[in-house]
Design brief:
alpha/beta; eight-stranded mixed sheet; two-stranded antiparallel ribbon
């Protein structure tokens, strides 16, 4: 993985100030995009006289809908006992993850949003003895914005290339950034450089001075490869708070005496990356809609080079994402132009 932009690892962590750093914005962008693609699909279905162009536009919209239906995937990667499970817990907003399933398996585990807790073999697994992965569905609101792909330390990085949009790499703060970890990160795809976090866990085992020195060393040795570096406490809530009625209770804040070091910063930085991924996906869909409008125009061979039909779908840069308005407007103009040509 190539280096991130200079200085990116040392930038101040984003704060939840209502300007888009909350992870809920990523889920909203996805839902809004799907809603508007559905509107576009219904709009072009109601337009007559341009069947060929409408069919091309409909097929393109179906492909875009399939793309946007899939949530962004965040890979969490690290060596054994590097605090991965607790980090996944935090990112997903869960008080207790099924660690018996997650921590001991040697296959990838995907966590995704579901109405009720469900554990399933990953599609493509021939049987339980030959698992290619495990899918865990959980009713966690944060998982509406992204899937988490928990990778065992031995898994090759080609899985990341196919599945992940962002990366969280965990390392143990008491022996952070080993030679093996350096080699693993160096072999990762370069596209992760600006959307990856390095998380040093088990900060509770260090004194404040030691935590500061670890943070400084990681920034010096690995800062160029990550968008942010965070040192966090990796204890489970019940280890600090105890258990009430069988369920651990997370505090609303992070009192210093509970030593939940770095957790707010980790979530803030992580949410910023997830929102950025969602925004890139929305822009990608918008550009695809513009290209689709041009292709739909070209599908009408009797409109020479489209000179009789203005490109209403070719919106100006920065225009609101409105595929329904763009495509429906283009196809209505195509239908009108075709009718004019037929009357000549």
């Amino acid at each position: 993985m190539t280096a991130a932009p200079a200085g990116s690892g040392g930038t101040p962590p984003p704060q939840p100030d209502g300007t888009g750093s909350h992870v809920q914005l990523a889920a909203e962008l996805r839902h809004q995009g799907l809603e508007r693609l559905g509107e576009a699909r219904r709009a072009i279905a109601a337009i007559g006289g341009v069947e060929e162009a409408a069919a091309l536009a409909a097929a393109g919209l179906d492909n875009l809908t399939t793309y946007l239906t899939k949530r962004p995937v965040v890979a969490v990667m690290g060596e054994i006992n590097s605090g991965k499970t607790t980090v996944v817990n935090l990112l997903a907003g869960l008080s207790v993850l099924p660690t018996g399933v997650i921590a001991t398996t040697a296959v990838p585990v995907r966590l995704r949003h579901g109405a009720a807790p469900v554990v399933l073999p990953h599609p493509g697994s021939p049987d339980l003895r030959s698992l290619r992965g495990i899918d865990v569905e959980l009713p966690a609101p944060r998982l509406d914005a992204f899937d988490i792909f928990d990778l065992p330390a031995s898994r090759d990085s080609d899985v990341l290339v196919r599945r992940a949009d962002a990366l969280v790499f965990t390392t143990l703060a008491t022996r952070a950034w080993t030679e093996g970890e350096r080699r693993t990160v160096a072999e990762l795809p370069s596209r992760f450089a600006g959307q990856a976090l390095l998380v040093a866990t088990h900060a509770d085992l260090l004194t404040p001075g030691e935590r500061q020195r670890v943070q400084e060393r990681l920034q010096r040795e690995a800062g160029g490869r990550f968008a942010g570096i965070v040192v966090v406490d990796a204890r489970e809530p019940q280890d600090v708070l105890g258990v009430a009625g069988g369920d651990p209770v997370m505090p609303e804040a992070e009192p210093a005496d509970l030593a939940f070091v770095g957790r707010a910063e980790l979530l803030a930085r992580f949410d910023r990356i997830v929102v950025a991924v969602a925004q890139r996906r929305a822009r990608r869909v918008e550009r695809a809609v513009h290209r689709l409008a041009r292709l739909s125009l070209g599908a009408l061979s009797r409109l020479p080079e489209g000179r009789d039909a203005p490109m209403a779908g070719d919106a100006a840069p920065g225009a609101p994402f409105d595929p329904a308005g763009q495509l429906a407007s283009v196809l209505r103009e195509l239908a009108a132009s075709k009718a004019k040509l037929a009357a000549r």
